C-alpha cells in the first residue's frame, strides 16, 4: 500500500439510533489516522438482499478473489453501519457474518455498528472473543446534547432558555430526537419570533421512547 495505517482489527459499536454511533466511527478513524477515503469501504446491509451481496464480496477478499478487488482495490478499513434485526436473530447469518469479520480483521480493519431499538443483543455478538474491541454506547449527556444544539443550523439560533426548555421537555435523550425538533421548526417555516408555544409543539412532535431494562448484555 502506498500509505500507512494502524491495524486495530475489529470493532463492534452497539447503541440505539441517535446515540452517536456514526460520530464514534469518525472518532476511531481519526484516532488511528485513517483519513484516506479511498482506503475505506462503507456498507449498510440492512436487509437480506444487501447481506447476500456483501457476503459474496467478503468471500472474495478473504480468498484473494478478483471480484472484490476489482470493486474496491486494496482497502484498509471496512465500515458496516446499522445492522438490524435480520442479522441479530438469524443464527445462520449471524455466525457467517462473525466468521467473515474475524477473517477480514487479520489483514484489514473492520468497524461494525448495530442499531438496536428496545431489543437485546445476542451474547455471541458482545463476546469479547469475537472482537478486538467493543464499544457500548450510552444516551448522550446533557453537555453533549447542548453541544449538538450549538452546531445545529436551526437549533443554534435559539437562546439558552429555549434550548434548556427543549432538552428538559424531550424525553428521548438522543441526537435523533433533537434533529426531529429542528426539522419541525424548519418545516414550519416560522416567520418572526419563536415562542415557547411553538417550541412545545416541536417537542410534542418527537415520540418519547423509554428503554426497557436489560437492553444490552454487558461486554467485559
What can you see in these coordinates?
The protein is α/β, with parallel strands linked by helices and 220 residues long. It folds into 2 domains: 10-136, Rossmann fold, CATH 3.40.50.300; 142-204. It has 9 helices and 5 strands, in the order E-H-E-H-H-E-H-H-E-E-H-H-H-H. It has helices at residues 21-31, 48-62, 66-72, 85-89, 91-104, 142-151, 160-169, 175-187, 196-204; strands spanning 10-16, 40-43, 77-83, 109-116, 133-136. A 5-stranded parallel beta sheet has the order 2-3-4-1-5. The two termini are 35 Å apart. The relative contact order is 0.17.
Number of helices: 9
Under CATH, the homologous superfamily of the largest domain reads P-loop containing nucleotide triphosphate hydrolases
Summarize the amount of helix as a percent range.
Answer: 40-55%
Write down the CATH class of the largest domain: Alpha Beta
**Care to count the β-strands?**
5
Order of helices and strands: EHEHHEHHEEHHHH
How many domains, as an integer?
A: 2
Low-confidence stretches: 64-69, 208-220
Q: What is the structural class? A: alpha/beta
CATH architecture of the largest domain: 3-Layer(aba) Sandwich
Strand order of the largest sheet: 2-3-4-1-5
What number is the mean pLDDT? 76
Q: CATH topology of the largest domain, which one? A: Rossmann fold
Q: In what range is the share of β-strand residues?
A: 5-15%
Oligomeric state of the chains in view: single chain
- Biggest sheet, open or closed, and with what strands and sense? 5 strands, parallel
Radius of gyration: 20 Å
